[in-house]
Amino acid sequence: MSLLINEIFYSIQGESSFAGYPCVFIRLTGCNLRCSYCDTRYAFDAGHESTIRSIIDRVSSFKCRLVEITGGEPLFQGKTPALIKQLLDLGYNVLLETNGSMDVGKTDNRCIRIMDIKCPSSGEAEQNDLANIGKLTFKDEIKFVIGDRDDFLYARKMLRMINKGSHVAQISFSPVSGQLLPSTLASWMLKDGIKARLNLQIHKIIWPSDKQGV
Ligand code: SF4
Questions:
Q1: What's the farthest any 2 CA atoms get from each other in the chain?
Q2: What sign does the dihedral 2-65-138-203 (CA atoms) show?
Q3: pTM, to two decimals
Q4: Which residue, judged by its Cα, is nearest atom 6 of ligand 1?
Q5: Which protein residue has the closest C-alpha to ligand 1 atom 3?
Q6: Full DSSP string of 2-41
Q7: How far is the CA of 73 from the centre of ligand 1 (A)?
């Protein structure tokens, strides 16, 4: 059983409630969306076939028990749930970074899903599968990537809906890098008493150029 892999690397987790922890990243090839601010376009097509066995061998070489499956969009490949399950069965703590447009219910409930809800400036908000919100559990997380004031108002409205029907571990608001100042988003959040976490991409602070870890 094999998947198309763009890269596997060891770095510091830059986002989510796991920010700051060493983590092995498995970046899968392919995505069904084309967000305006995407910073991983290189993963849309480039990749090599790898068996689950060889992926796990590479992951185990890093001596790290935290693994993130990312992309692209990991659920774009049908074998991704099998990879997640095998990593979980081996005792890894598995994070799944997903864009919110594909069925998160296909994945093992032991994995921690960090799900985007796309805002209007991404150009992909109509692709949100809002039924996913009800499939998340108390350990999963939701992330809004916010590029402007309209995005903030959209996220604020969605937050009210989520708080009524879901109990996720964390909801975060993240400014689009180079487009919205963190201080601007912070001031909007404070003014409106937003019950979410301001999320900054700390890997871009550690490695401001194209370096991303080892
Ligand atoms: S979902 Fe992620 S990988 Fe896909 S286009 Fe949007 S930002 Fe890029």
A1: 51
A2: negative
A3: 0.94
A4: 35
A5: 72
A6: EEEEEEEEEEE--SSTTTTSEEEEEEES--S---TT-S-G
A7: 7
Amino acid of residue 41: R
Could you count the other beta carbons within 10 Å of the beta carbon of residue 36? Answer: 12
Per-residue buried b or exposed e for 60-82, using 16+ beta carbons within 10 Å of the residue's own CB: eebebbbbbbbbbbbbbbeebbe
Superfamily grouping for domain 2-206: Aldolase class I (3.20.20.70)
Ordered per-residue pLDDT tens for the chain, 214 residues = 899 999 999 999 999 999 999 999 999 999 999 999 999 999 999 999 999 999 999 999 998 999 999 999 999 999 999 999 999 999 999 999 999 999 999 999 999 999 999 999 999 999 999 999 999 999 999 999 999 999 999 999 999 989 877 789 999 999 999 999 999 999 999 999 999 999 998 888 888 766 666 6
Is 46 within 8 Å of 54 (Cβ atoms)? no
Three-class SS state of 107: coil
Residue 99 CB less than 6 A away from ligand 1: yes
Q: Is 127 exposed, middle or buried (0-12, 13-18, 19+ CB in 10 A)?
A: middle
C-alpha torsion sign, points 10, 12, 14, 15 = positive
